[in-house]
């Protein structure tokens, strides 16, 4: 079998030899076979990448000083180059992290371009300064300058989209970037680098060094970095927040979740009508999405019907190789991740929750890190499976007696990232959504919208990505009193 091998890093607009001989080996979650390797970033590689990003940022006629129009044109060229590589990108991602190709085609191969074009539009419209009349007479010129060099750290579950959540608004604002992909998803970062080069993004504006958590920690604390943008686990986010707190370094943290899907008692539970939306909001990407509603809150008056609906949904899913177009649930991204999911299934059983379907490994798949879609009924919200992020295709069904109790259960969580409300009454759904302690909520569906801020409260993070609001996270304001 041929493997994918890369030998260099994309730094300062070109391919540079790595500083160490260490390599990251990529193993397919579908087959458990080695599918290639890339150099493992060393501190010296990050030093070179940060130096390139600093020089590009400081260039008096460079990216950070360009007009919004000029940056927008290059960002759109990057979107075009990514369009050309979309099929390759899908293959690269699904072969590394087990994301079903049907999901990768809709999200990973589309979202970065959508965001680049959206933020290119905002870069064009944005004057980056305004003069305001003062309350005490006179006026003030308020300028908005790019914040500087951004250290962007991304996880493996949506490696391209989550990188774009950072660089799209950051590039629009005029920042330069050092991106550190996860060791699980590296090949796609080379396709991205090729697109960056082909688009003519100036040297040093985007630099990419894959590596593990130590390298990420090194980047976070690097003296040449002005801002950190992180997506990943809450535990890592807390470490990063501590370091950034000490350094007084601006940081955006998009962390874990344990969102509630509140099924109201007037819902139409016909899977033919809502199955697709229910799947997308609770089990997408093999359950490895931060915002999924993995606690299903079910009205006791219709509890058995809700159990039957989710059991039916889980039982209807095609589980298999992520590269098969008909697959809906692929493998877990790593064997470590499968161990984690299986340990939670054991905890759920131990606590007394009842498995209605799944709970094991699919009998017909003898290789790959697969876990059957699993539904737990009779879950108490205090159980570990209801409080902790599992990050796999495992849902917990929790009964409630009134809307106010459902809201209280939804909010009895250390997290607050997503959530959904399922109802036949739009206004009732919105009224419930308003009371959920969370950064985002969907009514009868969940689809993050690039034009609206996305992020969490409580243990789910700090700050917001997406929407015009994200530009603020990559800008620094100055008031010049006139
Ligand atoms: P992780 O925290 O282990 O790793 C994420 C990234 O951070 C990787 O690139 C890793 O190398 C790096 N890293 C880890 N520890 C670090 C540290 N101390 N300093 C600097 N870098 C560090 O998370 P993961 O397992 O790769 O990803 C899954 C997690 O990401 C889940 O908790 C999920 O909820 C979360 N996530 C959140 C969002 C969101 O938008 N809120 C989106 C996707 C995933």
From TrEMBL:
TM stretches of this protein: none
KW Oxidoreductase (keyword) present: yes
Keyword set includes Acetylation: no
One Gene Ontology molecular-function label: oxidoreductase activity, acting on the aldehyde or oxo group of donors, NAD or NADP as acceptor
Gene3D superfamilies in the record: Aldehyde Dehydrogenase, Chain A, domain 1, Aldehyde Dehydrogenase, Chain A, domain 2
Superkingdom of source: Bacteria
SUPFAM superfamilies per UniProt: ALDH-like
CDD domains according to UniProt: ALDH_AldA-Rv0768
Domain Aldehyde dehydrogenase: 15-480
InterPro entries: Ald_DH/histidinol_DH (IPR016161), Ald_DH_C (IPR016163), Ald_DH_CS_GLU (IPR029510), Ald_DH_N (IPR016162), Aldehyde_DH_dom (IPR015590)
Pfam families: Aldedh
PANTHER family tied to this protein: ALDEHYDE DEHYDROGENASE, ALDEHYDE DEHYDROGENASE-RELATED
Keyword list, A-Z: Oxidoreductase
Residues at the active site: 254
Record protein name field: Acyl-CoA reductase-like NAD-dependent aldehyde dehydrogenase
Stated family: Belongs to the aldehyde dehydrogenase family.
């Amino acid at each position: 079998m041929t493997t994918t091998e890369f030998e260099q890093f994309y730094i300062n607009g070109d391919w540079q030899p790595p500083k160490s001989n260490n390599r990251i080996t990529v193993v397919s979650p579908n087959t458990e076979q080695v599918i290639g390797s890339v150099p493992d970033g060393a501190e010296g590689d990050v030093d070179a990448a940060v130096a390139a990003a600093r020089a590009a940022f400081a260039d008096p006629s460079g990216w950070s000083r360009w007009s919004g129009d000029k940056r927008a044109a290059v960002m759109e060229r990057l979107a075009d180059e990514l369009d050309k590589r979309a099929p390759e990108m899908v293959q690269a991602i699904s072969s590394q992290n087990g994301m079903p190709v049907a999901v990768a085609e809709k999200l990973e191969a589309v979202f970065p371009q959508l965001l680049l074009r959206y933020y290119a539009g905002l870069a064009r419209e944005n004057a980056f300064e305004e003069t305001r009349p003062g309350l005490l007479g006179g006026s003030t010129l308020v300028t908005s300058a790019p914040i500087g060099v951004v250290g962007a750290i991304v996880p493996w579950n949506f490696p391209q989209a989550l990188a774009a959540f950072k660089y799209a608004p950051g590039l629009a604002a005029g920042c330069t970037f050092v991106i550190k992909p996860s060791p699980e998803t590296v090949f796609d970062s080379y396709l991205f680098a090729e697109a960056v080069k082909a688009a003519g993004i100036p040297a040093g504006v985007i630099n990419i060094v894959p590596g593990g958590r130590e390298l990420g920690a090194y980047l976070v604390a690097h003296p040449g970095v002005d801002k950190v943008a992180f997506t990943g686990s809450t535990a890592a986010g807390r470490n990063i927040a501590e370091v950034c707190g000490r350094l007084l370094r601006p940081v955006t943290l998009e962390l874990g979740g344990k969102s509630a899907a509140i099924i109201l008692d007037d819902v139409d539970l016909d899977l033919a009508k809502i199955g697709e939306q229910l799947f997308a909001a609770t089990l997408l990407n093999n359950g490895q999405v931060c915002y999924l509603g993995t606690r299903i809150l079910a009205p006791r008056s219709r509890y058995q019907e809700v159990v039957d609906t989710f059991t039916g949904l889980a039982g209807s899913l095609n589980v298999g190789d992520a590269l098969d177009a008909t697959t809906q649930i692929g493998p877990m991204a790593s064997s470590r991740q499968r161990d984690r999911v299986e340990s939670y299934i054991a905890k759920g059983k131990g606590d007394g929750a009842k498995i209605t379907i799944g709970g094991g490994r699919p009998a017909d798949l003898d290789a790959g890190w697969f876990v059957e879609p699993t539904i737990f009924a009779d879950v108490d919200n205090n159980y570990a499976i209801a409080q902790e992020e599992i990050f796999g295709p495992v849902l917990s069904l929790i009964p409630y007696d009134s809307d106010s109790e459902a809201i209280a259960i939804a909010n009895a969580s250390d997290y607050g990232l997503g959530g959904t409300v399922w109802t036949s009454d739009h206004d009732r759904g919105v009224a419930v959504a308003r009371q959920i302690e969370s950064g985002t909520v969907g009514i009868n569906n969940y689809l993050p919208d690039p034009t609206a801020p996305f992020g969490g409260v409580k243990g789910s993070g700090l700050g917001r990505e997406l929407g015009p609001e994200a530009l603020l996270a990559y800008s620094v304001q100055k008031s010049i009193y006139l």
